[in-house]
């Protein structure tokens, strides 16, 4: 990393840290100074206290674990399906042509609206939540893969063909690796959307997960509990996103550094 | 130069489009033959079907009429006797330089150890061995184009089809690359068909220059370059006859004639 770059990173990190401190301080003392009651915005210390209480009494760890597992399952299954269908459609223009209106319709339909339906089908289990996550993760991954396969440089394919590559060789040696950067862009979007899908599922019905704590806290008018749940959800989403970035940096290590997105 | 014919086009015509009325004839009745070790340049206006001929030679297109032959065999599809190189280096960004050089032989199923040996030998001959573990984005455009040439040579083809291989690099790098290509072709005794827009490149690198007409492309002139030193284009460009030949080529291509090349009526 060059001199200029590393000084930029230093300055940026320092500024980020200052912003964080300012934000936390504003959270702690801002409501009191502005006369906002704690049932509207509980100060930071109250939320922290509530978190400790929830950890011991309400099984915060359990509910976070449930949500994390649902996110993970939904994300993995949804992105696998999205990638596989994306590759299949990418290689078969006829199939894409035939299916595109339905795919478009499903893509426009708000996926979270399916949550009550899935709960009707599968009851208050983890499965409807995972299913909503699958549905919501599926599209960005599929669309990115489909576009990537479509836009592979035809000269690259011709080069492989001129070397007498088989269809399978063209896929594994040219098309698949070319599609990896857009695939990871789709996975990044998917990892954050998975959390949305799971939470909506948990809000609609069930008695486990952070979404459940969220609506439970709301019912109790326990604003601090709602805040704790939101923070934990952000944490789950953040870790999922971070994992994708870490895997991406390993897989796409050959790309110039500037082409990697920041956090 | 032995008399064995390495690359031959016999009355090749290429039409694009389905219906006969709306078909676009890219190449019309082209016949040409390259004997062993010969380097021939093909020049002509843009869109005259030069690249189409190259795609037919590499087996990617089947001609509408006529046949192409490589090493006496009719070209039915891609085959190991021919390798092509384009203006774009077409290096795979996720492969190291050595892996890129070995791309063709890998597809052909050559064992890993032999692939590595061949790639390393080629990189050494191009003085690029120290970069074998690098990735393409770490190299300059000129170096990447040399890697592309190494990849083309790795499958040990008898015929090289080169489509404006140096038109994307800067003028100085181009001269270096031209000399390297000329020496490599001479040393390896490869036969090559070179498509270029650069008349000086055509003259200094080739044994013969073929001129194509505007679409539908036909061969309208053939000039033998009887200047010594085909493996040293930098020395060859100073030869007094070079200018005469370039003038004749410009004349054949209607360059400099008002209204002709540009299509503007004076």
Please give a handful of descriptors for the protein shown.
heterodimer; A: MetI-like fold; 10 helices; 81% helix; B: 266 residues; alpha/beta; 6-stranded mixed sheet; 4-stranded antiparallel sheet; 10 strands; 33% helix
Portion in strands of chain B: 15-25%
CATH class of the largest domain in chain A: Mainly Alpha
Number of helices of chain A: 10
> For the largest beta sheet of chain B, what order do the strands appear in spatially?
6-7-8-3-9-10
What is the mean predicted local confidence, pLDDT of chain B? 87
Strand count of chain B: 10
Low-confidence stretches of chain A: none
Helix content of chain B: 25-40%
C-alpha Rg of chain B, in Å?
A: 19 Å
Q: Sheet bearing the most strands of chain A, described?
A: none
**How many H/I helical runs of chain B?**
9
Task: Give Rg of chain A in angstroms.
Answer: 23 Å
CATH architecture tag of the largest domain in chain A? Orthogonal Bundle
Structural class of chain B: alpha/beta
Shape descriptor of chain B? globular
The main sheet of chain B comes to:
6 strands, mixed
Order of helices and strands of chain B: EEEHEEEHHHHEHEHEEHH
């Amino acid at each position: 990393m060059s001199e200029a770059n590393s000084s930029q990173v230093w300055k940026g990190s320092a500024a980020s840290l200052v912003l964080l401190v300012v934000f936390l301080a504003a959270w702690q003392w801002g409501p009191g100074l502005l006369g906002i009651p704690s049932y509207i915005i509980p100060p930071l210390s109250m939320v922290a206290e509530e978190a400790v209480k929830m950890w011991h009494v309400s099984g915060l760890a359990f509910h976070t674990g449930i949500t994390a597992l649902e996110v993970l399952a939904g994300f993995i299954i949804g992105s696998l399906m999205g990638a596989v269908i994306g590759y299949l459609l990418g290689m078969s223009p006829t199939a894409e042509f035939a299916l595109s209106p339905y795919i478009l319709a499903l893509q426009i339909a708000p996926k979270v609206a399916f949550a009550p339906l899935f709960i009707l089908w599968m009851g208050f289990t983890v499965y409807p939540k995972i299913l909503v996550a699958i549905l919501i993760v599926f599209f960005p991954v599929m669309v990115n893969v489909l576009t990537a396969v479509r836009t592979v440089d035809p000269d690259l394919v011709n080069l492989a063909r001129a070397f007498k590559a088989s269809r399978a060789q063209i896929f594994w040696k040219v098309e698949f690796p070319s599609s990896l950067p857009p695939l990871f862009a789709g996975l990044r979007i998917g990892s954050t959307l998975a959390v949305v899908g799971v939470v909506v599922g948990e809000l609609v019905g069930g008695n486990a997960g952070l979404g459940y704590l969220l609506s439970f806290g709301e019912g109790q008018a326990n604003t601090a509990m709602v805040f704790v749940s939101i923070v934990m959800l952000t944490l789950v989403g953040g870790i999922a996103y971070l994992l994708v970035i870490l895997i991406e940096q390993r897989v796409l290590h050959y790309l110039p550094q500037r082409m990697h997105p920041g956090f | 130069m032995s008399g064995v014919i390495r690359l031959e086009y016999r009355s090749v015509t290429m039409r694009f489009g389905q219906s006969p009325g709306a078909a676009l004839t890219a190449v019309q009745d082209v016949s040409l033959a390259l004997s062993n070790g010969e380097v021939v340049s093909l020049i002509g206006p843009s869109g005259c079907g030069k690249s189409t001929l190259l795609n037919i030679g590499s087996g990617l297109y089947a001609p509408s009429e006529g046949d192409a032959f490589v090493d006496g065999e009719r070209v039915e599809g891609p085959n190991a006797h021919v390798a092509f190189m384009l203006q774009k280096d077409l290096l795979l960004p996720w492969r190291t330089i050595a892996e890129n050089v070995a791309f063709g032989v890998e597809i052909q199923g050559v064992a890993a150890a032999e692939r590595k040996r061949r790639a390393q030998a080629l990189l050494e001959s191009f003085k690029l061995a120290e970069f074998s573990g690098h990735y393409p984005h770490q190299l300059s455009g000129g170096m990447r184009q040399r890697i592309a040439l190494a990849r083309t040579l790795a499958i040990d083809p008898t015929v090289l089809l080169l489509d404006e291989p140096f038109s994307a690099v800067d003028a100085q790098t181009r001269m270096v690359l031209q000399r390297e290509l000329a020496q490599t072709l001479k040393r390896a005794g490869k036969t090559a068909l070179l498509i270029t827009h650069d008349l000086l490149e055509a003259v200094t690198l080739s044994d013969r220059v073929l001129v194509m007409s505007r679409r539908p492309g036909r061969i309208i002139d053939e000039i033998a370059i009887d200047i010594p030193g085909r493996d040293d284009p930098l020395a060859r460009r100073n030869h007094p006859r070079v200018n005469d030949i370039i003038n004749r080529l410009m004349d054949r291509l209607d360059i400099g004639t008002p209204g002709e090349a540009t299509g503007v009526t004076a």
